[in-house]
Model the fold of this input.
Amino acid sequence: MHAMESSWFRIFILVGVALLFPAIVECRVRHYKFNVVVKNMTRLCSTKPTVTVNGKFPGPTIYAREEDTVLIKVVNHVKYNVSIHWHGIRQLRTGWADGPAYITQCPIQPGQSYVYNFTVTGQRGTLFWHAHVLWLRSTVHGALVILPKLGVPYPFPKPDHEAVVLLAEWWKSDTEAVINEALKSGLAPNVSDAHTINGHPGPVTNCPSQGGYRLGVAPGKTYMLRVINAALNEELFFKIAGHKMTVVEVDATYVKPFKTDTIVIAPGQTTNVIITADQASGQYMVAASPFMDAPIAVDNQTGTATLHYTGVQTTLATTLTRIPPKNATPVANNFVDSLRSLNSKTFPAKVPQTVDHSLLFTVGLGINPCPSCKPANGSRVVASVNNVTFVMPTTALLQAHFFGIKGVFTTDFPGNPPFAFNYTGTPPANLQTSSGTKLYRLPYNATVQLVLQDTGIVAPENHPIHLHGFNFFAVGRGIGNFNPKTDPKKFNLVDPVERNTIGVPAGGWVAIRFRADNPGVWFMHCHLEVHTTWGLKMAFLVDNGKGPNESLLPPPKDLPKC
Ligand code: C2O
Done:
């Protein structure tokens, strides 16, 4: 009798709440706890102390649904300062939860904690999270999966199963030592020792293979693979022997589906593909290998995994795949040129048709004097945007902006190269860069066209540029120097791919467009960690618009202090 009464009462309350607050029933708050701890990864035949989240490499996957609020409590148990970035999450008005150290927050100091609090708005798909301080991202990263709103289907046939496929790089030695050594010498850091797929390298010399990652598939079924490149410094080709992939999404935006046997994916990018287990029952090789079409050293180890049909003996020979040569530019171009926004009624491509701020930024390397850099003969490799090597502040930029702290940054970042030269031709005599903590200021809702122009200084190189706080449309791309007269005529303003990280082709340019509808300070940088370290980074300062809905929220109480 009692039970009966209380359950009726509960139903009464639930119905009441549902009528009063219909939204509460749909959206959820998701809680996660991230303990940043040191762990030894025996699986990778290494005894190096590895900084991880919850002792896992890769770290835990975060699942959320579009419109959910996500609360992640990060507790720092290691000796380094830590901050975590939710790569690709727009963070509308919540820049405090974006994560890049000294840009939107002071890092979380050893023994301290911080709760990242953000709501997923207007996004669904695959993203990832990673440490955004020092080189900790090498092992502190994991997937972030945003499911569509309840009852909203994918704009393609629902796959039978889904799996996260995280690609990364592994160094046998401590990555902090690797980069510190490089900065002391003035030279490039050592390349990694292995490429990993879901934390497994595949066979590596002197490391008895533990079999590598196996993706079990059942004949006839379809699988959506959420492929993420979490590597520090390498663009990758990704292939599965004998199976075509249908690309359906990149950087959490839907694309017009197309079939390919190879995808190219830069650090910071994600790609969802659907495969059908329609081949003869067996084992098929899955491979991640480097793409580098410049004379730059790479880690040549191919990361491997296995697509394993159910019931097949693991002793059966694996069908191998032919790995593209590392300089296979046509393979990469073919993939990139195939990407188009879905641009459907439900998911329109809202490409800005007019431009308020037209910008040209050169991205590339430079050489500055460094008297103490003996191995590099008294000089060091640096990197810059419009010849400015970004200097990290010691107070977070967003705080300085919000509280009006003077002397932390200036807003004179040049909208065009300070001096013009043949960017992709013979380098100028003077390879030196200037330095500063310069921001480019934008009024709320301004439309921006930004041409990112690679320079051939030192060497032309592909730079995957990532913009925080926004998605952008890649409206044009070319080789050589951007021509402001003829090239814009060829721009795609109808269905260009929308993403958060774009590869500037080696010795070429890309044009992107976005609307500055998110107030705050937003980092933009090369997602090759070595280039970020060298200074290939800058930030946009977007002013508040009118009223609270167009203004940055105040910082949370537990925002870390510097
Ligand atoms: Cu995924 Cu600023 O980085």
Notes: The helical segments are 2-20, 22-26, 175-185, 329-337, 397-403, 529-534. Residues 85, 87, 100, 130, 132, 268, 466, 468, 523, 525, 527 surround CU-O-CU linkage (CB under 6 Å).
